[in-house]
Amino acid sequence: MSVVTSAASQIAPPSWAGMVVLGESALVTTPTDREAEVLRRILAGIPTGSLTSSEAVPAVLR
After folding, report:
1. How far is CA 51 from the centre of its chain?
2. Whole-angstrom Cα distance, residue 25 to residue 7?
């Protein structure tokens, strides 16, 4: 999984984080470096295949 800062990314609405998962690879974009650091920490413990799970991600964000 790669988490990068890209305020101009179009994979999510402006000011949102966006995620694309293809097989065992994932690209996550955030508008700021601070958000990228937070998401790297939070998402590190989730298997790539679970990143799009409606249960797995909200569970670690609580």
Report:
1. 8
2. 21
